[in-house]
Design a protein that fits this description.
The complex is a heterodimer of chains A (258) and B (200). By secondary structure, chain A is an alpha/beta fold. Chain A has one domain: TIM Barrel. Chain A has ten helices and twelve strands. In chain A, a hairpin with a 4-residue loop joins strand 8 and strand 9. The chains are: A alpha/beta (258), B alpha/beta (200).
Chain lengths: 258, 200
Amino acid sequence: MLAKRLIPCLDVKAGRVVKGTKFLNLRDAGDPVEIAAFYDKEGADEIVFLDITASAEERDIIIDVVANTAAEVFIPLTVGGGIRTIEDIRRLLKAGADKVSINTAAVKDPDLVNRASRRFGSQCIVVAIDAKRREGGWEVYINGGRTPTGRDAIAWAKEVESRGAGEILLTSMDCDGTQDGYDYELTRMVSEAIHIPIIASGGAGKLEHFYEVLTRGKADAALAASVFHYKMFSISQVKSFLMERNLVMRPGIVTTFA
Amino acid sequence: MIAIVDYGMGNLRSVQKAVERVGFCATLVHSAEELDGAEKLILPGVGAFADAMKGLEERGLVGPIIQHIKQGHPFLGICLGLQLLFSESTEDGLHKGLGIIPGRVLRFAQNGLKVPHMGWNQVSFLRDVPLARGIPQGAYMYFVHSYYVCPEDPEVIAATTDYGINFASFVWKDNIFATQFHPEKSQSVGLALLRNFLGL
């Protein structure tokens, strides 16, 4: 049976790992290649790099980070953040990324999803959706959660699926950084509306949250950043917890933090 | 020389790096001339079937790949590189493949299952495959695909995986080895399989 996936996300700024709370207040924290290799050894099923580099002149640094990571880590690597063009995608895939995640550019130019999936295959085109609750549903935000788009998150997920996206990375802006749990309702609604896999993101703080999002939330994969980054628990600890509750997971290498 | 066929279909760097990690060196080849003399051939690839066949034809690689296999040299197909071996694929119409293994490439039915089949799934070996040496029965490998192969001769199926149906996740016939999963992305078990192939 297909296993549920557990995915640590690293926010990378100018080649260094940082983690923000509610998209603000960044803290510097380390070398992305080293951290990715560490997560790999712990049993991570994939790695996501979110490039939050703002300045144009530092944007190429992520290419080197990806190339160095791909030489060390032999599990799938997804890279998102600031991807605007087919050329951006081509360079990241060539450097060794397995998938790219498009967010703002997909909203501004939805045909980019069609072009990218036709050129590189659906399997490597992930569309990231940042969603925030509003009256009667959820609204899509872009530009790192700063700009509302008026679009309904569920309708947008369906649209990008029809345009050729191979996967959805869904972040609840209401839950992100709170550690109070994922938005299970949002995740389930989107998962039931589409036929491609969905990665849930935003809100993990307890072991139960992973279980809830992968069962009640109907997510195919759970993504988290802070809880792994600040070592609240290890990947293998989460996997053991989920396997004890009869979820199908790829067994990780057992290590625990003192 | 160990050759990785580069025909414009996806990320070959990870295959090359994985080969290096297990102690071998592989060359990316783009033409019949470069492929000439290869002792082992790896045909990776992700993307659309028809584009892939076009990519091979435009580079004049169809004949040399078939010849390599007919001469009995070890061959490893990965993902699309497995599917291309077959007679035809139903991806976006009907397209002819290399025709080395009789059979068809079909799309997963969406019976409540997400397509693409993406993530880690178990591989059950049906027979003693030299490439599976040291790999436990039921090992998890990384998959990402919407189509699967259906060989006419069930004897070529070396392993299966369950995703709504039991599909052929590993095909083995003489010197031809081909996986639907990505050994280069399947951590230590995947690397073990690659090492076994390279050490043949």
